[in-house]
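We modelled the chain as a single entity of 335 amino acids. Its sequence is:
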Amino acid sequence: MSVKIGNIDLGEFPLLLAPMEDVSDPPFRYVCKQNGADLMYTEFISSEGLIRDAAKSVQKLDIFEYERPIGIQLFGSDINSMREAGIIADKANPDLIDINYGCPVKQVACKGAGAALLQDIPKMVRMTKEIVDIANRPVTVKTRLGWDDNTKNIGEVAERLQDIGIAALSIHGRTRAQLYKGPADWTLIGEVRNNPRITIPIFGNGDVDTPEKALEMKNRYGVDGVMIGRASIGYPWIFNEIKHYMKTGQHLPKPTMADRLTVCKMHLLKSIEWKGEKLGIIEMRRHYTNYFRGLPNFKEYRMKLVTNYSYNEILNILAEVESVYANMDLDLVAA
């Protein structure tokens, strides 16, 4: 049976690309979409930045037709600012608006935004309702199990947010106190999914980095889909690998060096198309290590890639990488 968020049909077991700051921009989303992501989100956008017309925040509203369905994700601590930001985001015509109640980093949570709202459920509910009321499209939420081990209140959060009209909920299987440390605990995610009161889609997030884990989360906890974050960085193939494994029980062949180069070059091209040659090249630099993770003696090529400002010269360097590593057993490298 298809999973739906409002009228958005996501198929039987959708795979979501998690919103990640300084990662899930349009060029990165492009390569993930090409490799099987079913629903994606913008990087999270500050409500205060948006209502003040800050260039960085406004640019994060950029979405392209080939990305759909896509959600714009907002965060903030002030209800009025979030409402105003919701109106601006709604006018950008995404498929949905997502609210971040999960970001654990100090710069966000200590200002009363992101995961900090897990300490004030009534405020979270009021803030969410304001955005549900102004939006002309579904509103979804991403959050965590709770603030810390003593306040794992995700069961209450799910019921109360559903009651005021959210259309889906993504749950990261850690508390704010854990940050990204320790294994994600999916037990409570499963309890939320299996709560007979909950009728909206529940997506699980945390530590899904293999097809086997995705299938386990589906079978063991009954989630409607999984959200993948860090495992997709430098490895957008994860989405299609999971889909193939779920359909056939077989693993797709691992991407070859030529596959890595093809996707890396497309990512670079999209970065330049979006930001212009100079900025596009600079912003791509953070991704080379991830695309070529595990290659022996790659440092020399990485240094060339991150100090060069010419698109054509970077293509030449990548061609040299391909010739040097073409016959290497990448499975051996990964092991």
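As a brief sanity check on the tokenised model: The CA atoms of residues 87 and 277 lie 32 Å apart. The domain at 4-248 is CATH 3.20.20.70 (TIM Barrel).
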